[in-house]
Amino acid sequence: MDQVAFFTENGWIYWRPILLVLGALAAALMTLALCILRKRRIAALLLALPLAVVLSLFFARIIHWYCRYESYESLRAALQTLEGGGYSLIGAFLGVPLALGIARLCKLEDNLPALLDCAAPGAALGIAIGRLGDLFTYADRGKMFVTNPALQRLPYATTVVNATSGATEWRFATFFMQSLVGAVLFVLLMVMFLLRSKRRRDGDVALIFLTLYSISQVVLDSTRYDALFLRSNGFVSLEQILCAVVLVGAVILLSVRSIRNDGFRVFHIVMWVAALAGLGGAGYMEYYVQRHGDAYMLAYKLMTAALLLCLLAILLLLLVRKRRRGRRIAPSH
Amino acid sequence: MRKLLSVFFGLVALALAGLAVSLCVYAGNHQAVIPDGEGGPTETLSHFLGCLQTGDWAGAESLMDGGSLGLAESPDTEINTMFWEAQRQSWDFRIEEGYTLVGAEVQKTVQVSGMAPEDMAVPLQTQVQEILRLRTEEARLASEIYDENGAFRDEVAYQALTDAATMLLTDSASYCRQQNVTVRLRYDKALGQWRILPSEELLRAMTGGVGNALVQAYSMRINNMIATAMDGVLPIEKVYWLDESLVVAPVPDLARFGASANPADTESVISDAAKLLDGQEMIWSPETKVAPGSQVHWYLDDTILSVTWKQGIDNAMYTFSEVKIAHPSQFRRYFADNTFSAARQYKPSEMARAVNAVTALSGDFHKFRNLGIIVYQRQLYRCLGQHLDTCMVDGQGNLNFVMAGELTQEADVKAYIEENDILFSLAFGPVLLHDGQRRNLDYYLIGEIDDYYARSVICQIDDLHYLLVTVNTEAPFTNAATAHTLCNALEAMGVKNAYVLDGGQTAALITNGKLINAVQFGSERAISDIIYFATAIPSEEGAS
What we know:
The complex is a heterodimer.
Chain A: E1 4-8, E2 11-14, H1 15-37, H2 42-67, H3 75-80, H4 90-105, H5 112-130, E3 157-161, E4 168-172, H6 174-194, H7 204-223, H8 238-262, H9 266-291, H10 296-319
Antiparallel strand pairs in A: 1-2, 3-4
Helix pairs in contact in A: 1-2, 1-5, 2-4, 5-6, 5-7, 6-7, 7-8, 7-10, 8-9, 8-10, 9-10
Chain B: H1 2-29, H2 41-54, H3 57-62, H4 78-90, E1 92-95, E2 100-102, E3 105-115, H5 121-138, H6 154-169, E4 176-188, E5 193-196, H7 200-207, H8 214-229, E6 257-260, H9 267-272, H10 274-277, E7 296-300, E8 304-313, E9 316-325, E10 331-335, H11 348-354, E11 359-362, E12 372-376, E13 379-384, E14 390-394, E15 399-402, H12 410-420, E16 422-426, E17 431-434, E18 437-438, E19 455-462, E20 465-472, H13 483-492, E21 497-501, E22 509-511, E23 514-515, E24 529-533, H14 539-542
Antiparallel strand pairs in B: 1-3, 2-3, 3-4, 4-5, 6-7, 7-8, 8-9, 9-20, 10-24, 11-22, 11-24, 12-13, 14-15, 14-16, 17-18, 17-21, 19-20, 19-21, 22-23
């Protein structure tokens, strides 16, 4: 049950939306700060930020309605009010890039990848703050009960009251782990952003953010007891599917770049095999944990290991460059 | 300047992060302050309780956030009316200071004083005996008191009962109990008022019953108390039933669960269940050849008999639970979080324990697929009947089968629900047996009917008499079952009506809160629903 922050004459204000607003504000301000630092045009941001809010809310609501349509009267009812139902963070991952893309199309900014790089650390910070909002709800908890008294506290577990029996249960604090991941990603991305490198191209910071976030979410979303699923598939969550798409996309993008720079090599095949093996292994462990729920510790460890293999492949595709020997150009006579 | 601006905004962003963390710490240790003066929750609650005490049900319900008290009815007999009036007079409420905030609900503690009729059973019995003794002494002829069988005449016994009850009820204060209950209130923004949320706990403390038919439930309670008091004098049958709106059933008496590796130990249980069985034959018998190394589990009270055993058939492990109930309300359905399409899913055993099921079976897992006709608590939630057979359970506890494609329009389904008194539905299928006739199963959209697979089935044997079945691979048996081999097995056992539920890892049979069958892959799967059978004896009366 959502915890109330304070009562007013017009009703009550919950803690969760307060945290979400703080997260969005922090994300926007950090993006602004980094845009100023990198001399990006502020006009683009002034258009994109409010547009991002509107688009993110819209997509977040649509996605939640699609996955949980039987919780709503109709799509129209879902879109007519902000109250009730739910929102999917995936909507923000659609809304923000789309808003920035519109700013690019309006020619308010000519370098979209650079703009995305400025937004990435802010996005991680926003997620870190926003996820804390679930401290005041019963959403985004794990399927696993935490029975070890030593682990019955944050960051591992929080209490949930069973809606039927009234019993208090200690469940894995998925939301808190997601918040911690966001915080770690923020620090990592800020270091990456601030430490300029000639080898780094515009868009790499955003790509690293998406890659690392996707890898963490494949595991963490699997633990949730209220994950969103497509209507046709109750096995793999929507978030996991999209994360897999992002990871495959990262492999493709970096492979194309690497092949253009250095030509096709055996190295690429090895990386592809490693990435696919990692993704395949993670996919199998997802199936395994669904079938053998009690063996979740082993399953998630192996899933993480498989995803780290995929991550390694992506990082190697990003970082490894063929050494170019110096070529002398003979003077013309 | 640029760098300064950048640093400034960056620091503000980080400050917001720090603020967020601080708020989390603060909120974890402080609850919101609720203005509790005029029009506040305490005043509203006080007004509500005042209406209850004066019998102003409409006034009390006007302060509620939906729902009704169910107190406006009158009991059906004179003696029940006497007790009901005394019960109402006995109510006293005291609101404790302070409150707890849970989400947007204020919870207040109320000390409730009310008559506990069960405490009157023994004094009533003593008083009745005394009155009958005096009447017997005063009577000139034996035939004034006794009938031709030597038992007290009904009218004499009933008069003694009424007189005894009248005497006892003049001192009803002696039979009052106090208990603390939690009442929840919610603030209605549109009305600008606090509203009382329906409180089962409060109503139980006041009347001993819960649900929409409270006065009926109270009458049942008095009837059963009198049955105890008049034992040997006037044959009054105890009646127990469960209100439809009840989410959690009464706690079964743990002492009445039993288990044994020797099937012969169930002989006495079956013998004790003769009245409940009411002449119906059981499929289980103590001569049944159970699977080696397995146990037979049972539960028996006045309202429910459940016998669970494992048996090898066609090299597959069948787990059966045969259930006979006294009242159709004991056959129940439960959705996760008591909500259609709830965000969360639970293991079948978790749900079974949450609702105090004696015996439970995994349901149709309707959340997994967008198919079927879903009815729950008489409401239609999904109407996609083109491809799946539906099992509609009516208010008499009978399984009614609607074949795929028979009902596809919402209006037709709603009419069917209304006309047939349907409480809930199951949407998986297929129907295997219908009135003893085997279905022709060439094709069915779901359930891989031709493959050897773990399966679950619900069967109806007779009135209020059911058989829950799961089939799994379990040593020493290496097969599961196709829909056809499963049908063969059930036919051979004499089952006339059988409906398939979700199989595979979903199939789980639970008794006494414990998983009995060997689920596929070795661990239960979180699903959306179960069906279950519960005792109707109130927890206070039956639980140990």
